[in-house]
């Protein structure tokens, strides 16, 4: 299930070598521009490209939405894995109350696409970012950002006052990742009170996120680590509330812990993001059912590549290399026994000792990436497919950030 029927039928024989009908590049781009996808198949695409399996993708959205509804927890889905307004809008339509973003650029782009309820999960440092936060908060009062330092709180308050805006702030607490966040307990309370006393800021809640639990192998061990991290967050929530500091939002969680955090009731919302697309790293963390694979969600995203040279036994060159973020931990979907290696900026290698089938010159091969964030960052679009047919194209936004307005 997790691999999205990875053992299913392999793509057809290489049309390029057979002389079958194929669209010229200029015609393909023209049809995409006018959103006419009739008759366009994977064989027509200029590899390497991102391919999104529509059926698996929509099933992932339904599963997460159904889980959140059943457990009474909100979803503020993280867009860092896809940075696509097309996907973000579908996540909100499926039930998400908003989106979490890794950069202010992502927030601006999602806001420009009409999405509200945005949370920037890094604090704004520097006048450029504090001013952009204030501008976005003035445009959309539902927008929030995090802070873990009194210096940032004061700078943000100043920028908000200058813009005649009110910025909602979530206090970021370090629950174990050691990357950012104020210390749990008294330090977190002090910062929350500082936000409350700032005239141009409003305290929205507390955040505690650590990727440590998300990819912990084994569901029981993952639950133990998640509880350990949650304890630090809950300590701060309890102290704030006991001190008269209202905490409306308690946010955190991840795809790997979605059915742990929600069941324990320590969060009001989840920041899960990878669930929509998934990658091969999640395949090995294990499910609640005891399965060694994580089959709660399917791998909807692949990098479509083509065999461009087959001159040596037991290996073939493909056109997805370092620039496509090809990794040895990627999985060649539907090619049992075939391994993936990097071989240069625009080259990857498929290797095998014994395989059920050997890739041939011109064959299309789909790679399940091992890191969604990195793989998506190298492409400008995703081709949405039903089986072999292209049915839509989603844009990937903000690889360098939008113009600052």
Report what the structure shows:
With 405 residues, the protein is α/β, with parallel strands linked by helices. The chain folds into two domains: 15-53 and 296-395, D-serine dehydratase-like domain (Lyase, Ornithine Decarboxylase, Chain A, domain 1), CATH 2.40.37.20; 55-284, Alpha-Beta Barrel (TIM Barrel). The protein contains twelve helices and 17 strands. The chain has helices at residues 15-18, 25-33, 54-71, 85-94, 104-112, 127-139, 150-162, 186-197, 211-214, 219-242, 258-264, 372-376; strands at 49-53, 74-78, 98-101, 118-120, 144-147, 167-172, 201-208, 249-252, 269-270, 301-312, 315-318, 331-333, 339-342, 348-351, 364-368, 381-386, 389-395. Strands 1, 10, 11, 12, 13, 14, 15, 16 and 17 form a nine-stranded mixed β-sheet that branches. Strand 16 and strand 17 form a beta hairpin. Helix 5 (104-112) runs parallel beside helix 6 (127-139) and helix 6 crosses helix 7 (150-162).
């Amino acid at each position: 299930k997790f691999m999205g029927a990875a053992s299913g039928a392999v793509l057809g024989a290489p049309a390029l070598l057979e002389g079958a009908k194929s669209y010229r590049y200029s015609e393909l781009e023209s049809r995409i521009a006018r959103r006419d996808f009739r008759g366009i198949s994977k064989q027509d695409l200029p590899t390497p490209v991102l391919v999104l399996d529509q059926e698996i993708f929509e099933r992932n959205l339904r599963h997460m939405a159904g889980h959140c509804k059943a457990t009474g927890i909100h979803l503020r889905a993280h867009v860092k894995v896809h940075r696509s307004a097309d996907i973000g809008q579908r996540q909100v339509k499926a039930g998400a109350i908003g989106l979490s973003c890794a950069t202010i650029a992502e927030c601006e782009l999602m806001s420009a696409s009409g999405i509200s309820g945005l949370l920037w999960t890094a604090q704004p440092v520097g006048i450029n970012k504090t001013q952009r936060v204030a501008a976005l908060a003035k445009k959309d009062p539902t927008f929030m950002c995090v802070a873990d330092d009194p210096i940032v709180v004061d700078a943000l308050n100043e920028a908000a006052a200058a813009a005649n805006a009110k910025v909602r702030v979530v206090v970021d607490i370090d629950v174990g990742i050691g990357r950012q966040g104020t210390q749990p307990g008294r330090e977190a309370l002090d910062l929350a009170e500082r936000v409350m006393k700032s005239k141009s800021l409003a305290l929205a809640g507390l955040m505690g996120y650590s990727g440590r639990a998300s990819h912990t192998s084994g569901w029981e061990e993952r639950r133990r680590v998640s509880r350990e991290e949650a304890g630090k967050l809950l300590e701060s929530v309890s102290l704030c509330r006991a001190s008269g500091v209202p905490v409306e939002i308690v946010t955190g969680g991840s795809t790997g812990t979605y059915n742990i955090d929600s069941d324990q009731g320590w969060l009001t919302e989840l920041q899960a993001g990878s669930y929509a697309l998934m990658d091969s790293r999640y395949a090995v963390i294990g499910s609640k059912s005891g399965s060694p694979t994580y089959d709660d969600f399917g791998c909807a995203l692949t990098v479509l590549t083509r065999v461009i040279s087959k001159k040596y036994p037991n290996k073939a060159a493909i056109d997805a290399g370092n620039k496509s973020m090809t990794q040895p931990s990627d999985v060649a979907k539907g090619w049992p026994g075939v391994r993936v290696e990097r071989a240069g900026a625009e080259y990857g290698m498929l290797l095998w000792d014994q395989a059920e089938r050997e890739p041939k010159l011109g064959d299309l091969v789909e790679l399940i990436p091992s890191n969604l964030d990195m793989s998506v960052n190298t492409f400008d679009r995703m081709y949405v497919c039903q089986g072999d047919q292209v049915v839509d194209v989603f844009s990937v936004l903000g690889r360098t950030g939008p113009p600052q307005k």
